[in-house]
Amino acid sequence: MGRPHVLTYVALTLLATAILAGVFFGTAEVSWADRWAALSGAADAPRSLSLIIWEWRLPRVLVVAVVGGSLALAGVMMQTVLHNPLADPYLMGLSSGASAAAVGAILWLPPWVASTLGIPLIAFAGAVCAFAMTLGLSLRRGAIMSPLVVILAGVAVSLMFQSLTAFFLYVGDPHATRSALGWLMGTAAGTAWVDLWLPLFALVAVSGFALLRSQSLDAVLLGDERAMALGIRVRRLRLVVFAAVALLAGLSVATVGIVGFVGLIVPHMARLLVGGRHRALIPLSLVLGALVLVVVDLLCRVILAPEELPLGVLLAIFAAPPFILILRRVRHAY
Amino acid sequence: MKRPRMLAIIPALLVCASTAVAQEAVVQSCGGAFSFDAAPERAVTLNQQATEVMLALGLADRMVGTAYMDDAILPQWQEAYDSVPILAEKYPAREVVITTDPDFLFAGFASAFSDDNLGAEAEWHDLGIGTYLVDASCDVTNPKDVPPGTAPIYTDIRVIGDIFGVEDRAADLIAQTQDRLNAAASANVGAGRTVFIYDSGDETPYSIGCCGGPGVLVEAVGLVNIAADLEGRWVDLAWERVVQANPDVIVLIEADWSGAAEKRAYMEADPVLAELDAVRDGKFMTIPFSQTVLGMQFADGVDNLSAQLATLN
Amino acid sequence: MLIDPMIEISHLSVTLGGKRRVDDLSMTVQRGSFHGLLGPNGAGKTTVLRTLYRAQNPDTGDVYINGTAIDAWAQADWTRTVGALVQEGGSLQGLTIRDVVDIGLMHLPLSPAARAACANDALALAGLTELTDMEAALVSGGERQRTHIAQVLARDPDLYILDEPSNHLDLCYQILLLDEIRRRGKTVIATFHDLSLAARYCDTVTLMRDGKGVATGTPDAVLTRDNLRDVFRVNGVLQDGALHIEGAIRV
To answer: Beta-strand (E) ranges in chain C?
Structure first.
């Protein structure tokens, strides 16, 4: 397994570089000497820059990296257990449930509710609620949860919550809808150290689980029945994967809003480089996902400085070419 | 919004309008010209700013409907305001407006005449109903990247005065307003200090660029807006820029959808923002949203801001 | 005398999609024998196999493999003992032909080198040596079928459960691969559409119709002129291990 290792290490190096770049560059214009001084904690570093780097940029870049890795990992697992190259982490209604809850809270609840509970918690609750509905619609006793049914249920639930969100936005106070819309497009602005720990812990836990179960996940790629014939408990594995994806995607949406593309496209990029075996696919997807999102977040901060673009905007622009490439490959297979 | 057809002769028309016979006027609004044969009797105002212009000129008896207040009406206009029916909390539907049988529609924001609200001004003109959009909100006369100054306030008073034949009241009001603004300019309480205008938002603050009403307000008392080099009226401003600019004072806009207290609390709770000189020294000023609009409460806003600045010194 | 059963099925009934696919079927397969499941479309053959490899839960009845009820098997033992050739598809995203075989071998306590050698042997048997690095999703149906058979061969389980092993395959590969499976002498239960193939390989067969077992015995004993006419609606006879067809019967 020489090549996958090399590629993963290359990607890790790129990621480290990107993280450094993300910390050095931003909306404030500073000299290089000041940047190094602030990063190394020298005594004569300008205080405001040190604060910006340590309290704002560093946690933000790390959170973005964790979210990127989480979404990519969630995408890999969804595509495997649903036998569908177009599956993404938000398939089970997670993003729409989170949006509806967050937008509803921003527009309708009194501000003190939002500041005590926090929009992230409300968004996460919405995500879990939508997820539970999708799961409820697709479970049937004795059957193994047909992937098609899960996908359709997810689409139905997503549409329902999306129209709820649209309704909230339409009847809500136009001044307040601005911030609601900003949340929907995805932004890492305002993330602090406290936002890092839970997503990081979840990512480490789920990655560990996924790597331990790589063999089972590989077997599922052969088909549900072949995996069962090999002794894998496919239904249980699917349920656990859904729960893990709900956790990763729900926390991601709660922290930075809706970030598309990464969960869908990064697994395909990684698969093109190292193939479909999960032992190699999972680590590379994690690193690539983190890398993509860190780079895009940096671009969002500097392209139109001092205004910040929402993550969703630039990601959408980057999504089209690789997606078309993938579509052409998939067309051959079907 | 449809482009007005006679763009080139706006200045000429305004001059004509101000010297024409009191009961007839040809008015160039943002969405097209309209010829008034007589002063309207049944006006509908669609935003707070428009309502206030009418009430300031004592025209409540010519109004049949108001809509979309941003905050409470001022005490001196309360009685007059209560005598006019309220059509809606936000924008009324077109049918609701038509059933009041209006002959004049007056709006404060361009969104009033967008397709999902009341529709283009030219459409109302075809029905024989005149319209006017306040000068500051018209992208044609006041593009988003050109600082408007205080002129739009006077333009609105003058045009409404012409339409309704109350030119003398209009002239008085203009003179009063001008006096107050001139006094503030010469007092120069701001003395060139820098200011961060905090409108709303938390993770990314919404501030004012070169060309929004609140920007003109702070300039009127002699302050310098840290975002004055950014194009646009309202702009997203990254916090890092605010930290880098290290403003001398902070103006918090108080509105129903975004209170001043929560904005102040956000800045004080953030580890980086709490270290700003202005936050540590508590140099905050609060101004209600309606006083930042280039309308009838603008002079009140200038006085309000000057007073707060004086106590901060 | 049935003294050493590998598979024991007792009064098995399975309902799928509202329809009873297997109806009170009882069947035993001797260890080491090659047993065929025959019958027309809809007879329930695939359902029996799916129940055997645990993809389908029975309504009633008991199924034992090697003396233990199938839902009582531990996963590790099951993987070592049972190998199935399954008809349904799979996404096979990003997998090469070699990967498909390798995935089947992961549970074995072999070093990567030994695993690779084992896979290579099986791939050579299936004539896939040239194609090992091709993407499994992009090869032809016949090559994919050979890949799945190669995986089962590489694993060499004690019980081979084969659903339509001759599907999509050229005649030469049908013979080569089934010869190899028979040569190994393990217990095999397989479905066949081709009655000549069944006659060639099966020690015993069970004939099914409409979910019920109609007859069990050697191919000669079961594929009589009457059964061929009644069950398969074909006029013909099995003679010297080959099927002689005279014509089909219109309904």
So the answer is: 5-16, 19-30, 34-38, 60-65, 68-69, 82-85, 159-162, 187-191, 204-209, 212-217, 234-239, 242-248
